[in-house]
Amino acid sequence: MVLKTFGWSFAVTALGLVAAVFYGGWTAFGIVAILSVLEISLSFDNAVVNAGILKKMNAFWQKIFLTIGVLIAVFGMRLVFPVVIVAISAKVGPIDAVDLALNDKDHYQELVTDAHPSIAAFGGMFLLMIFLDFIFEDRDIKWLSWLERPLAKLGKVDMLSVCVALIVLMITSMTFATHAHQHGGAHVDKAQTVLLSGIAGLITYMIVGGLSGYFEDRLEEAEEREHEEEEAAERAGKPKSAVLLAGKAAFFMFLYLEVLDASFSFDGVIGAFAITNDIVLMALGLGIGAMYVRSLTVYLVRQGTLDDYVYLEHGAHYAIGALAVILMVTIQYQINEVITGLVGVILIGWSFWSSVRRNRALAAAEGKDLNSDEKTEVSSGV
Asked: Which residue ranges run through the membrane (predicted)?
């Protein structure tokens, strides 16, 4: 079962890691491995959401999502999007960006280094908004309750996450300008770049959120119509039309899933820039990760087991928050990519272990309850 579901992912992992060694040695191997783990961990919640919607679709649309949809996800967002970001930031054509990355690494590195403040500000703000919207929402299940309870209360204030993000951006750009001024003002214009790029990141987050919300609303409307038609058919004594139920809403489901996947992959792609600027390593790592998202989605549809690890979503969002802070810091200071990658991996691992401990505690508590019930039955002579 596991080999059948994850077979392609294992094969792509092996090929990707071998390609990384040939491309840049064992350092490249390590970076691709970290990027893969980062993408998988940040996409756990994506797989859970995908599975929940895929269950409602018929076999044809499931196949469409898991083939064409994955091609869009892997090649569109994970391979093309990083190139587009570098091309826009460095003001070169996408083909030139790939050519430089492969054939003139020194010049490419120079271009990306110059463009890094704008990439970091854009990505930092986008990731920060994801984290803030998560942490300010009141949830039934809390991981770090000492932190999440007070923040959930604060989250009742409208637009708080936007205000906090803008304050962080303002402080970052002012700090950058002050630092540049102390060094002769050579990079004062970069402060404006940081400010504008950060605002662009905020706007992008709101557009993606708006599109997701739009498709979600359309999906709900379609499902309501299907439900009404089913009830009408049942009252008239006609058989339910399962094909109609799967078919009518399926197109909006597919579009909604693609928008969701695009928005989820933003955090992985942007987070990858905190680890490496090399688009080849980025494409390898994120491509491997995206394959596991597909496999996890299929596994969830068939088994539905990852819902048990309730803190994984929390861990992924804390990792996003950490990456956002790291990206904003790298505007001015250099941070080793291994440290950056390990922060996310540690947070995900911690949340996974917390989920396992919680499950064991719940199982032990249920066992005690069963034992006490049995004793009561024996003592009462039942």
From this structure: 6-35, 64-90, 118-136, 157-181, 193-215, 241-257, 269-294, 315-333, 339-356
Decide: 351 and 312 in contact? Cβ < 8 Å.
yes
Could you list the beta-strand ranges (E) of the chain: none
> How far, in Å, CA of 278 to CA of 158, rounded?
39
Residue pointed to by tokens 């091609």: 71
Cβ–Cβ < 8 Å for 36, 288: yes
The amino acid at 339: I
Which tokens is 6 given? 């994850």
Find all residues with CB under 8 Å of 199, minimum gap 6, and list them.
125, 169
Q: Is the separation of the CB atoms in 114 and 100 below 8 Å?
A: no
DSSP letters for 147-212: HHHHHHHHTTSTTHHHHHHHHHHHHHHHHHHHHHHHTTSTTHHHHHHHHHHHHHHHHHHHHHHHHH
